[in-house]
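Notes for week 9. Today we move from apo structures to complexes. The key idea is that a small molecule is not decoration. When we ask for a structure prediction with pyridoxal-5'-phosphate present, the ligand SMILES becomes part of the input, just like the chain. The input block below holds both the sequence and the ligand string. Read it once before you look at the output, and try to guess where the molecule might sit.
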Amino acid sequence: MKKDTLLTHVGRDPEKYEGMVNTPVFRTSTVIFPTLEEYETRDGDDYKAVRYGRHGTPTTFALEEAVARMEGGHQAVAVPSGLAAIAAAIRAFVRSGDHLLVADSVYAPTRNFCERQLRPNGVEVEYYDPLIGADIARRLRPNTTAVFCETPGSLTFEMQDIPAIAQAAHARNIPVLADNTWGTPYFFRSFERGVDVSIHSATKYIVGHSDVMMGLIVADEPSWLPVRKTVADYGYSVSPADCYLALRGFRTIGVRMKQQMANALAVAQWLDSRTEVKRVLYPALESDPGYPIWKRDFDGAAALFSFVLDGAGDKQAAALINALKLFSIGSSWGGYESLVVLARVAKYRTATQWNPGGATIRLHIGLEDPDDLVADLDQAFAKMTKAAA
Ligand SMILES: Cc1ncc(COP(=O)(O)O)c(C=O)c1O
């Protein structure tokens, strides 16, 4: 099955639900059993039978199956947010005394989790240059138990060479964990590139409509039970109604992302031609240093990228951002709407430096007509220049 066909048919079973095309919302806490024997034996270990609301319902399982199959993983589990997914995935492999390698470009709250929850509890956390590639082998220590990647970094967009990192890590039996929120299961089939555990903020493109917080962890077979048991131990549980919305969003991820990528490319190319802009940080642009890796490993690009102002600092960036009318100021991305934030990157770097020669602004490009988005940016650049004069 080609992936758009799979996306339409996976994770539903109308025959089971009187012909209903979508798996309905099953709300329950309690599941009751006909005999004590069944109560005590149903689904001991793989968490795929209904036995208590916290462990999932048929609605939850439908979403998890759809995402796991699309990405090419063994199984998936839904958790209450993307950050919860990151925390549980790391905790499944890292204990006191272990060494964890983390990309320096990682999402800032991932770094906070490492600094505030792992390091004080005896984990050696080391950040690495996201461009390290096969040289990661030199950072592996006898007590390294996981490598945590995010490709591309969601503020600065450096592409990581995941196959090279995975080859080095796997030679030492170390699992590779990757935040694949940008790539999504649709554009980056991470398991084919060597990822063992793929983490998503489903809040972004999987839900796709800016109305649900959710995370998903997809694992290969050897990593599945450690991940699933950690999620169970922390007691994470998601609402079946939210799972229903997430699966509804996921059905259209293909058309949304293809359109949003086309829109993003149009805006990125326009920005690339502006004298106010020093660099556009978008691996889908041929001028980007990450382009060859992106082209080799990905089927498409998310509509999230940054650009660097040529010499202008945060004050001018603020004038530009405040002048925008179609781009809203907000943290998230992956929905249908365009967004903008000032990316304050430097304070989150320790293994590398971020000094690109001007303020860094991150855009998420939505489903609006790109001509209107370009016109909005154009008038905002004029206001920024006027404010600086
Ligand atoms: C790359 C990345 N990973 C994880 C997260 C966290 O996801 P959530 O907000 O669902 O906790 C975000 C949120 O912005 C993100 O951008």
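The chain has two domains: 3-251, 253-388.
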